[in-house]
């Protein structure tokens, strides 16, 4: 209804009366969605003991990445299902080298970021020494 009112105001080239109502409606709908989601979670926990709506498990894919695999219902058992058995939930041995390189790269990026933050702090302390002294005295 509010959107219709807004479009009609645009069509007549007039300002919409009290446009803040749109934001209030969006906020209240978000709050309502949150309450409904919490109730669904609580009910699911009581009925099934599962926290997530769709159960799953952490598994490795063929590239060595750890992913969340959502369980699905199949009409036949997993050991007879050719399509399911084609999936690879393990990484081949030659992928380990690339996993190590990926982790090293992530560690270098984090170290670089931390080093940059320290340099910025040091630069700010050199620029504004009186502020760093005031901060030290307030901590003591």
Mean pLDDT: 87
Largest sheet strand order: 1-2
Radius of gyration: 28 Å
Low-confidence stretches: none
Helical/strand content category: mainly alpha
Would you list the SSEs in sequence order as H and E?
A: HHEEHHH
Describe this structure in words.
By secondary structure, the chain is mostly helical. Helix content is 61%, strand content 7%. The protein contains five helices and two strands; from the N terminus they run ααββααα. Helix 4 (96-127) crosses helix 5. The mean pLDDT is 87.
Fold blueprint:
Elements: H1 2-11, H2 20-47, E1 56-60, E2 66-70, H3 82-86, H4 96-127, H5 129-139
Antiparallel strand pairs: 1-2
Helix pairs in contact: 4-5
Compact description:
With 140 residues, the chain is mainly alpha-helical. The protein contains five helices and two strands.
Descriptive terms for the model:
7% strand; two-stranded antiparallel sheet; 140 residues; mainly alpha
């Amino acid at each position: 209804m509010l959107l219709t009112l807004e479009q009609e105001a645009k069509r007549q080239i007039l300002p919409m009366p009290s446009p803040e109502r749109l934001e209030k409606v969006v906020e209240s709908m978000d709050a309502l969605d949150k309450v409904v989601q919490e109730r669904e979670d609580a009910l699911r926990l009581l009925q099934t003991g599962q926290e997530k709506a769709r159960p799953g498990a952490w598994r490795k894919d063929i590239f060595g990445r750890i992913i969340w695999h959502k369980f699905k219902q199949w009409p036949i058992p997993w050991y007879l299902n050719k399509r399911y058995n084609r999936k690879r939930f393990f990484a081949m041995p030659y992928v380990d080298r690339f996993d190590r390189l990926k982790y090293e790269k992530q560690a270098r990026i984090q170290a670089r970021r931390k080093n940059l933050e320290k340099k910025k702090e040091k630069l700010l302390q050199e620029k504004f020494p009186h502020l760093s002294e005031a901060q030290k005295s307030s901590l003591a």
